[in-house]
Design goal:
This protein has 216 residues and is of the alpha/beta class. The chain has helices at 3-37, 50-58, 73-76, 102-109, 194-204; strands at residues 63-66, 86-96, 113-119, 129-134, 137-142, 147-148, 155-160, 164-172, 175-180, 210-214. Strand 2 (86-96), helix 4 (102-109) and strand 3 form a beta-alpha-beta unit.
Length: 216
């Protein structure tokens, strides 16, 4: 075997090792990518929101996708739409505590609306699946994490019973924030539950406010 053949064989082995390493890295990174797509309007998986996004488009309600850090949101708000006021939908792939940072709080107080799906609440012995009544029809809810509302203040019930809320809202100066304990309120898995899709549509639709969904 001449030196050229040896070199060629070494190059082939090296190339095979590189391809194998790339394939391994792709497999290792797949779970993280899957989690990040949970709740995304680009996703057709059961926990994605692609079907709801299409539902809103079909009914003539345009939704824009926000793909930058939240801090840049105020700079991009269109001045021609209700002086720049918008509704932002955030769908958490993992449950998060129902609280706002200073930037979010100031943004809401300025007259904007923030709707957050996937607010953390302790697990209880409540029934996992319930049907909640709303103005737009029955809403199927699957969670054992109802939120216990305070008896007074600026917080009010949107969906649930008198003391245990699945969805609630809080007024902050000129704006409001809406929280839901379940991140799957209108996920692809609920396509047959029209009440779920209509209910989320109602939550994000405000007079003269453009609708954005957080895909950052």
């Amino acid at each position: 075997m001449n030196p050229a053949q040896n070199l060629s064989r070494r190059q082939m082995w090296f190339g095979a090792l590189v391809i194998g390493a790339i394939a391994l890295l792709t497999l290792l990174s797949a779970p993280t990518q899957s989690v990040s797509r949970s709740g995304s309007t680009y996703s057709r998986a059961p926990d994605g929101y692609g079907a709801w996004y299409s539902f809103m488009s079909d009914r003539g309600t345009p939704i824009q996708r926000w793909q930058q850090p939240f801090e840049q949101l105020a700079q991009k708000q269109p001045s021609s739409v209700n002086q720049g006021k918008i509704t932002l939908l955030q769908i958490n792939s993992r449950l998060k505590v129902a609280s706002l940072d200073e930037n979010q709080k100031a943004w809401v107080e300025a007259g904007n609306t923030l709707v957050v799906l996937g607010a953390h609440a302790p697990v209880t012995d409540a029934a996992f699946r319930t049907w909640q009544t709303s103005e737009v029809g029955n809403v199927r809810v699957e969670t054992r994490r109802p939120h216990y509302l305070p008896k007074q203040g600026t917080i009010s019930l949107v969906l649930g019973d008198r003391f245990r809320a699945v969805v609630w809202q809080e007024s902050l100066d000129q704006g409001r924030v809406v929280w839901a304990t379940t991140p799957h309120l209108a996920a692809n898995a609920y396509q047959d539950d029209r009440g779920n899709y209509e209910f989320l549509a109602q939550l994000v639709t405000q007079p003269k406010q453009s609708i954005w969904v957080d895909e950052s």
